[in-house]
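Please decode residue identities from the backbone states below.
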């Protein structure tokens, strides 16, 4: 196990002091350490991983120095385009160090959404001709950095589960509400009718929804749990909303997920799906992977939602205000947007869906078929 402070010191010794990316649970210690020890303009948490490749490219163009881009391997998809059409040695040849958390490593137990991604992570890097090493010791950094500089292209360090020791985020922003996300979800679920459809986002929002359904003994057929594919729940919900005009479709989103593909709601609103209801649980953080801040605290989401074309948009921050606005939100002609401000954190014993994604899909499709 590597000490995270030593690891970051080793990077600094090799003149790597600019970081950007999207947090990952396997990189929790790393992300927390750099959050606590670098100013905001030296550790930029980007909206998605592709943005981070572009940002590190700009940093290199301006300084001639190598930036470090961190991500979960599920974010590789978001960076294929800028890696191949910007940073690649046959295009601009931009050197940078990628630090990639290896979820779903073969023969290591993990959740279904990580299995395929984990199996193909190294071959994806091979296909993109990105050289890599699986991080074993500090000397991997000092051997890799000269290669990156010499060859003017991205190199990757792939990080296995348990590579780093534990470091807990000390800083971090204060909560924007006293309401817990789980209580907010519970309240919303209690206000839905039994034909209403939910598409929920990646991470703890779906896990909490799943447990609430278990607790209520109402089954899981009404919920599509978008366990992977972060940022795409609203587009999945749109596909359903456009084809099922007689059902109300609720998207349960997170602020990190909305920010990741913020163009999607503009397209959703342009189609005016009257049955579309978008709920964003805003804790201003990537809570599911360690609580690193998003920029959601700086955004007037109600103004944004209205400006992209949602017919109704409102924000609440307590169960009282949620209950007060609910009838209007659920009955207005959509598309409608509701921001529920919640605090960070979840129960330590929060479970995970027991059924496989294909089972979830089959039950959900049957539920959608019902008139
Ligand atoms: C493309 C991609 N990048 C990163 C991740 C890792 N990841 C899983 S959940 C999550 C945070 C989600 O934050 P948010 O939507 O705000 O919901 P919260 O966890 O705060 O409830 C991240 C970064 C992922 N699953 N997919």
């Amino acid at each position: 196990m590597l000490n995270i402070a030593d690891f970051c010191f080793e990077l600094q010794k090799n003149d790597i002091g600019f970081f950007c990316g999207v947090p990952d649970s396997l990189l929790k210690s790393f992300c927390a350490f750099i959050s606590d020890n670098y100013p905001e303009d030296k550790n930029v948490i980007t909206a998605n991983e592709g943005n981070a490749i572009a940002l590190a490219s700009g940093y290199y163009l301006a300084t001639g120095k190598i930036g470090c881009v961190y991500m979960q391997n599920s974010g590789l998809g978001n960076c294929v385009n800028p890696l191949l059409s910007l940073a690649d040695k046959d295009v601009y040849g931009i050197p940078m160090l990628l630090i990639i958390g290896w979820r779903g490593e073969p023969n290591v137990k993990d959740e279904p959404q990580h299995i395929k991604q984990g199996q193909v992570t190294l071959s994806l890097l091979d296909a993109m001709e990105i050289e890599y090493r699986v991080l074993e010791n500090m000397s991997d950094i000092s051997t890799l950095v000269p290669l990156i500089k010499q060859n003017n292209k991205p190199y990757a360090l792939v990080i296995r589960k348990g590579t780093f020791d534990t470091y807990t985020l000390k800083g971090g922003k204060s909560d924007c509400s006293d309401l817990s996300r789980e209580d907010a979800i519970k309240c919303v679920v209690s206000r839905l009718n039994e034909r209403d459809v939910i598409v929920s986002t990646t991470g703890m929002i779906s896990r909490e929804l799943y447990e609430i359904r278990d607790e209520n003994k109402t089954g899981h057929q009404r919920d599509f749990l978008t366990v992977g594919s972060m940022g795409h729940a609203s587009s999945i919900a749109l596909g359903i909303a456009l084809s099922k005009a007689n059902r109300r479709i609720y998207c349960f989103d997170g602020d990190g997920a909305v920010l990741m593909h913020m163009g999607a709601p503009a397209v959703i609103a342009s189609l005016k799906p009257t049955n579309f209801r978008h709920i964003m649980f805003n804790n201003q953080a990537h809570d599911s992977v360690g609580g690193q801040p998003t920029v959601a605290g700086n955004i007037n989401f109600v103004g944004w939602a209205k400006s992209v074309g949602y017919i109704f948009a409102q924000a609440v921050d307590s169960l009282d205000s949620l209950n007060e606005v609910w009838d209007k939100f659920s009955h207005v002609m959509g598309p409608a947007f509701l921001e529920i401000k919640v605090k960070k954190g979840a129960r330590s014993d929060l479970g995970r869906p027991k059924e496989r994604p294909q089972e979830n899909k089959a039950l959900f499709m049957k539920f959608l078929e019902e008139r």
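Observation: The first strand starts at residue 19 and ends at 21.
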